[in-house]
C-alpha cells in the first residue's frame, strides 16, 4: 500500500512551483490553479510558490486531496481519496 501512496505529495511537486526570483517577504496570498509536469492539478490558494490555505489536488490517476495546506504540504484537516476510492 505504501508504494502506491508514495506517488502523491512528492518533493518534485513541492519544488516545481518555487522560484528563486521571489522571496516570501514580498509574497501575497493568491488563488489560482496549476497543472504539474506529472499531470496533477492544484486549485486553491497560494502563498508565493507554496500551496497554502484551502485547496484541492487532483492527480492524473483520479486520486484527490481536498483540505488545508501549509507552505506546500497538506496540513490540518482534509480528505485524501486514492485512485481506488479508499
Quick take:
By secondary structure, the chain is mostly beta strands. Helix content is 12%, strand content 45%.
Helix and strand element order: HHEEEEE
As a percent range, the share of helical residues equals 10-25%
Provide the domain count. 1
Count of β-strands: 5
Radius of gyration: 13 Å
Average of pLDDT: 87
Describe this structure in words.
The protein has 86 residues and is mainly beta. It has one domain (2-20, 29-81). Helix content is 12%, strand content 45%. The chain is built from 2 helices and 5 strands; from the N terminus they run ααβββββ. It has helices at 2-5, 11-16, and strands spanning 29-35, 41-47, 50-58, 64-70, 73-81. The longest helix has 6 residues, at 11-16. The chain is globular, with a radius of gyration of 13 Å. The protein starts with a helix and ends in a 5-residue tail after the last strand. The relative contact order is 0.19. The model has no long low-confidence stretch (mean pLDDT 87).
Please specify the SSE layout and strand pairing.
Layout: H1 2-5, H2 11-16, E1 29-35, E2 41-47, E3 50-58, E4 64-70, E5 73-81
Antiparallel strand pairs: 1-2, 2-3, 3-4, 4-5
What are its keywords?
86 residues; mainly beta; five-stranded antiparallel sheet; 45% strand
Amino acid at each position: 500500500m505504501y508504494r502506491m501512496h508514495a506517488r502523491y505529495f512528492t518533493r518534485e511537486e513541492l519544488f516545481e512551483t518555487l522560484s528563486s526570483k521571489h522571496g516570501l517577504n514580498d509574497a501575497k496570498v493568491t488563488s489560482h490553479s496549476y497543472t504539474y509536469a506529472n499531470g496533477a492539478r492544484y486549485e486553491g490558494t497560494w502563498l508565493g510558490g507554496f500551496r497554502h490555505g484551502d485547496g484541492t489536488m487532483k492527480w492524473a490517476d483520479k486520486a484527490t486531496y481536498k483540505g488545508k495546506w501549509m507552505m506546500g504540504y497538506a496540513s490540518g484537516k482534509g480528505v485524501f481519496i486514492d485512485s481506488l476510492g479508499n
